[in-house]
Fold this sequence. Notes:
binds flavin mononucleotide, 8-stranded parallel beta barrel, 374 residues, TIM Barrel, alpha/beta, 11 strands, two-stranded antiparallel ribbon, single chain, globular, 15% strand, 44% helix
Amino acid sequence: MVSMADRLGFGTHNKLKLGLFGANCSSGRTVTTVPERWSASWPEMLDLARVADEAGLEFLLPIGRWKGYGGDTDYQGATFETVTWATALLATTRRICVFGTVHAPLIHPVIAAKEFVTADHVGAGRFGLNVVCGWNEGEFEMFGVEQRQHEARYDYAREWLDAIKAMWTREDAFDVDGRYLSLKGVRANPKPYGGSRPMIMNAGASPVGQAFAVDNCDALFRAVRLATLGDARDQVAAVKARAALQGRDLGVYTIGVLTCRKTRREAREYYEYCTLEHADWSAVDRIMAMQKIDPSQYTAEEYRRIRRDFANGLSGFTLIGDPDDIAAELAQLSEAGFSGIALSMVNYGAELPFFRDEVLPRLERLGLREPVKN
Ligand SMILES: Cc1cc2nc3c(=O)[nH]c(=O)nc-3n(C[C@H](O)[C@H](O)[C@H](O)COP(=O)(O)O)c2cc1C
């Protein structure tokens, strides 16, 4: 048996859970032209997953991306489909949870439910689901699917997820007769592994998106910046309190791009070289235009800051420093109520070993993590 509590804690007692975000995509999250940027080739991916697993990281979170963003590097132009990616990685790891990131409006729920169960059995209960509703118009056009209005996207996702949960639990044949879905005589076996179900997360940022996570998911991922961590503390408490009213313990996580080097100066220099001097600014400007970020709404200084944040993974916590700095900033996140963070690095494979050797022991000394039992 795998209990739901085990799944939601990723099988560890660590107060601050750690994962990697976006490694299924070329360039990962940093919009840079530097030659060492992440290629996301399968052999490198496989090595990375094994190193992360052995280091005791809790999860791998992929990005559901169907089409590159263009620019000089075609940022995120080469991506692995996330559920097949997760299934293969689950077959070659022992402890780590691997998420699939799935666009509810693009994947039929009967296919999706069975794919998730397949991955979950391969990983003996280590598959997790990140439900996304989508926002990227070009991706929907590529599928020939019309994107719904914002609120209706989450309404649809609720129906989609209810159908999947029913397939995961119901033994009888059943119909779904909803506003969007009409499914007849549905039967789905096997059920998820070990008598529980995959952990479900969502990363809605709007009030509607966050309400969806509170009502339907086990975890909410939300982007924060160091400068606004004070406000985030109250927001995390508020969203957890709303879930608690429904008798549920909602995990609140965030995302960040990490540049950790032996000295603060080296880290800062590398960040400046990679993310400022060698940003793929043509891709950054395309992404900002797709997200309808209008320069006229900002002061020149604000706009410059936003553009720099976009080059560094589009949004999220920017972690730059030596191992002490990074451990201290991660501790601040934990103090603000976050359950964990999904990190990205310019080259995950080259950078993770240093993080494992230098930052993880510091987090253990701070009481945020325990040593890995091999
Ligand atoms: C951690 C995280 C992961 C996300 N992953 C994806 C993804 O893989 N694909 C995608 O299209 N959108 C992704 N998004 C975007 C969200 O699903 C969502 O569309 C966005 O935060 C806007 O929220 P809203 O729909 O409430 O306006 C992600 C956002 C975050 C913070």
